[in-house]
Specification:
Blueprint: E1 3-4, E2 7-8, H1 9-15, E3 20-25, E4 29-36, E5 44-48, H2 55-59, H3 63-67, E6 71-75, H4 92-106, E7 112-116, H5 119-129, E8 137-140, H6 150-173, H7 192-198, H8 203-215, E9 229-234, H9 242-251, E10 256-260, H10 266-269, H11 271-296
Parallel strand pairs: 5-6, 5-7, 7-8, 8-9, 9-10
Antiparallel strand pairs: 1-2, 3-4, 4-6
Length: 297
């Protein structure tokens, strides 16, 4: 049976729905938080999913592997899945503030945002807006800015229609398969359950998030990042060009680069390659945290 860092297909299926609970956050309402405790005293990873995805869809292959080494926390972004309501306007800054607010409720003083695609700007903003809380960054399949190429602009224009299509197909098929029944072949593939997860995001939110992402840029301040950072580069990515991902890495002092030879949906469709790269990136950041603590003593 296939294993990667101790993760077998059977184990993956059994934990593909991470444990979680509804949490009330003052001033924000209720959200569903996924959490695995990890070893005592381990650094906290706060996973942030991509555009129109959900925590479960984006991270289910990685959750149990990371939890062997870290305390792992995640929630759906506002307007996505079981996250906070988006309100009248979807803003990345609100998503970044949500992370800090949830960390407060959970009693987490410092954490490492792990951002994938759309989650990358949210993670960057979490550092920018809450520097005293963020002790490291892991950024995957993401960039300092988006929408620069014709391919990217075309994809962002198509995305709300794709979300709308999954909602129609889901209604026709009558719902989705639970995560425990996700089928895994040579590469994981999108099942009816995955389509059900996609249906949790409205086309309107997808459109707002797409527009917000297209306007995002961290060029002016990303070079100020002063915490250990690792960049997972999806080298076959046709949506966020690998060159753009590498520019992000080069803009951050001492950022390490961890290539994964797969496309933009590597977190699920090529999880066998992505999860080891993600673990390597997290280990790079965690290892440097220890060295920083020694220097400060």
């Amino acid at each position: 049976m296939f294993e990667v860092f101790g993760l077998s297909v059977s184990k993956l299926a059994s934990v593909s729905r991470p444990p979680g609970r509804t949490v009330e956050v003052p001033g924000r309402g209720d959200t569903f938080v996924y959490e695995m405790e990890g070893p005592p005293g381990a650094p906290v990873l706060f996973l942030v999913h991509g555009l129109v995805a959900t925590t479960q869809l984006n991270w289910f292959p990685a959750f149990p592997v990371l939890a062997d080494r870290y305390r792992v926390v995640a929630m759906d972004l506002r307007g996505h899945g079981r996250g906070f309501p988006a309100g009248k306007r979807f803003r990345l800054s609100d998503c970044a503030d949500d992370i800090a607010a949830v960390a407060d409720v959970l009693g987490i003083e410092r954490f490492i945002p792990v951002g994938y695609s759309l989650g990358g700007p949210v993670a960057q903003l979490a550092w920018h807006r809450h520097r005293d809380r963020v002790e490291g960054l892991v950024l995957a399949a993401t960039s300092r800015n988006f929408g620069g190429t014709l391919r990217e602009r075309t994809w962002y224009r198509m995305l709300p229609g794709i979300v709308a299509g999954t909602r129609v197909v889901g209604r026709i098929r009558g719902g989705g398969r639970p995560p425990e029944d996700v089928e895994l072949g040579e590469d994981a593939f999108v099942t009816r359950w995955a389509m059900e997860e996609l249906r949790r995001v409205s086309p309107d939110i997808a459109l707002q998030a797409m527009g917000t992402l297209g306007r995002f840029s961290s060029h002016e301040w990303i070079g100020e990042v002063d915490v250990p950072t690792a960049i997972v580069v999806t080298t076959k990515d046709h949506l966020i060009a690998p060159a753009r991902q590498i520019k992000l890495a080069n803009a951050i002092p001492d950022a390490t680069i961890h290539p994964v030879h797969a496309g933009h949906a590597a977190c699920v469709l090529a999880y066998r390659r992505f999860v080891p790269g993600l673990v390597e990136a997290c280990e790079s950041v965690a290892g440097r945290l220890g060295k920083r603590s020694e220097k400060n003593q």
